[in-house]
């Protein structure tokens, strides 16, 4: 009887249940080996919550335990799900993204392995037992027995001290994964509620100048820049390809080209195969933000939601003020998705075209197909060109969106049987269709006379094949295609192509670049000076070395240099460098690590200091 009543005490039973959930999250995120760390770092925070219940919830104690159990379970579940896509630990800041979940529910379900739902099993069983078994209801009276206040208070004091000690000892770790591992996930979540400035220190916004940024990056201003005004006066058409990674270009599967259109375009202009994403939580909208501002994404949340209320210095504004450009952006989804209406106002686009313009015609995923996007966009660009002013246009593709369940009517390639019912196979089919649709756009531009008078910029917005959620079969297929194990150097690698018919000689350029560099590179080609404009990218035609700080998808403190991707451990000293393809060995210097972190802080400080839009 003693044993039975002991195990039915809420404190004991829910402690056991939470231990199981701690280990489930641990195995998904930190590895599958046995360790005492989940108990040592996770149990104190759980017991602190339970001690509070014992102190202050006597009458409805069981109900409160059930509520707290559900809340803590949901935290662990959210951590697991977020990690499977982004590769980092989710925090409360992600609540801003909850409103987008309905739109991307297909992506959520693709990441949702059935065994993840086992974390809620106890909640369902307890609810059923309480609802349908009368004997179980007597549990509430057993649970109502009060623990002596002195005992509960003592436990609370001890557990809070241990939690504070875990946080204090590990507060200076910049790698969120290592920090969460050593603090404990729940302690880490509480710690992340402290404002960033209080944890990392602030950079005076007046110290953020173009000169200071160039000095920190180790670059200078070219006196006679290569490519200056090579595309002067041309329409600038920027095509952002959804989830497009660089390994797709020139890829053949059993002799079939996956992206024949882009393969040809890469041979017609400037192709940067060593170009990398720097997007954050906003993914596609973050790529739009960086391309148009050359500013880093915020430490938490999507740039469109965090910075959309700001007066942002941007490429559309500079082109209009200095070179007389008109600007427009085209996206087939609702403009309010990811608060793009706020972002476009902050960036200063003259016009935007969204779902209302494209209508629900030939729907793929969230809106009209890429075929409709490009056909109607090309026609509208021809109309805008009649006004006599050069056009700056952003065109956002979307049909190749995660989870890449392309409608059968759009499939244009017959892949080998080994790709059937695989995530990688679905990805290849989607990107093959996206490539086909892009080819139709090029044809329309040629028909309406814009092709020979444009600078076409094409890049991927973010990765499409997350290494954290691939099955063994998918990993083998990736290795077969790229002829090496799939790792971060391929996952973060997106292409950049610049085509200006008759103005740019075709070249494959080996320098490292990132999305931050698109704005200054385009500005150089059209003759737009940026010497007095705060921007964190660099002109890729006039710089051969680069330093790319990364946020999201890799832990904080990670960066890409000319030879590799550096990922810190608990400190710089125990970090690892993954060599980039073609580099014999990756090398990262501590001064690069410190400069990368300062560049991020400088960008954060500068954008926060910008005035609010009226």
UniProtKB/TrEMBL annotation:
Species lineage, top-down? Answer: Bacteria, Bacillati, Bacillota, Bacilli, Bacillales
Q: In which pathway does it act?
A: Cell wall biogenesis; lipoteichoic acid biosynthesis
State the protein's name.
Answer: Sulfatase N-terminal domain-containing protein
Indicate the segments forming the Sulfatase N-terminal domain, all copies: 235-527
Leader sequence range is none
Q: Which superkingdom, per the lineage? A: Bacteria
Q: Could you tell me which species this protein originates from?
A: Paenibacillus cisolokensis
Query: Which CDD domains does the record match to this protein?
Result: LTA_synthase (cd16015)
Q: Where are the transmembrane segments?
A: 12-30, 36-56, 63-83, 112-130, 150-168
